[in-house]
Structure prediction request, 503 residues.
Amino acid sequence: MNGRTVSCDPTELRTLFLFEKLDDAQLARLCREGRVEEFEAGPVYTEGDAATCFFVLLDGTLVLTRRVGADDVEVSRSSQRGVYAGAFQAYLGERARGAKYTGSMRVTEPSRFFVLPADTFSAIMRDWFPMAVHLLEGLFFGSQNTQQVINQRERLLALGSLSAGLTHELNNPAAAAVSATAALRERVAGMRHKLGVIAHGRYEPESLLTLVEVQERTAEQVAKAKPLSPLEATDREDAIGDWLEDHGIGDAWQLAPTFVQAGLDTDWLDQVAAAVDERTLESAVRWLNYTVETELLMNEIEDSTTRVSTLVNAARQYSQLDRAPFQNADVHELLDSTLLMLSGKIGKGVTVVKDYDRSLPSVPAYPGELNQVWTNLIDNAVSAINDTGHEGTLTVRTALDRDRLLVEFRDTGTGVPADIRNRIFDPFFTTKPVGHGTGLGLDISWRIVVNKHHGSLDVRSVPGDTRFQVRLPLGAPQSDAIEPEAAEPSAFGASPEASPEGS
Prediction:
């Protein structure tokens, strides 16, 4: 909104801390090329508009806000003369062209500002303070590059940890599949031998066909076997063992557990006994035992290879290597893949509870970066639980919160002390011992959620109940969403005594 232009007094400008060291000619140029504007209570500029002006408060009260989801969040309020806001990084020159206000400013009472166009501000800075401009440019872009390198390092460290966990998770099913395959080869060889023994026996064709039918039903029964309680399994093993001994079949203690695992009982054995004569019963039972064992081993191989396939798919989902960077994403798929990737690190001391609202719609997002947020929050929760020295619970909940999708990570860990709660999202702040944390995980998470997705990241904590809450807008984030390290004029600035955001 445009204010009412009034006369500019160089003497008044000299009373502001920004201009107190300028000479008369410089103050005269400011008044000549700038202007003083009066604003009634209301907006001065809006987030997303072109950053065209540099504002310095002469009198009144300003409020600076950022848009988070559907809400305007206040980040600073000041009545101090000389506080400034707007395009105060216009000194970057051509590299700042096309920049937009990354926040909004309003006044709560009639207020006056000294207003300088961004291009004029840039020219004055370069004319009067050329060395300072070079130093500021170096500081700005140097810190930006440093932050990018550190962020990349943080991502690589996380990737290394995940790779180690994934290797461990893959090793178990792969080793199980190898072992089962070797055992299966032995059982198939034994089955061939027993088949030869049966072929030399005196079987009537009808009896042999019946035995083959029993074998087929046995294989089907293995696939349908239901787990038994320990007491039920013991009782059935005893019953089968007694049956085998009563029929003169040795090593009953070895055969009985296999038959029980396959869901077979004495009724099944009676069918086998009815299909063959007593002289060849033992060979038939042992041949069917090989059938049962091969089916069980094939089930084990299938389970192991399915586990490997699931882990590979989870890794693909987690990394998003074969997906577009920006897409409509199902947060539940992202959460599941991250939990699976971190299962090795979560360990047995942490119980994971999923409280999902599966009716929630997909959200437009950068899935690979959201997975990084989930990783950081889950890792912190697990660490907090482990710090208690006993077992705990991590609850991952999704819900609809007005016009936003809520993802909450709740842990029963040690909690976040109140005196540091407002600092945990600061870069390099960490409570972990030296060498165990960089202090960037929550900072990166905050920037991904707030700056890139226009969402919010909040924490509520008491010992035994800590909740990190991510809220994502259901609508598409702006395509020109800017991360803090982007080379653009900041929307916020103030005096050294009242700076709301260090830009």
Observations:
- Confidence is low (pLDDT under 50) at residues 433-439, 477-503.
- The chain is about 50% helix and 20% strand.
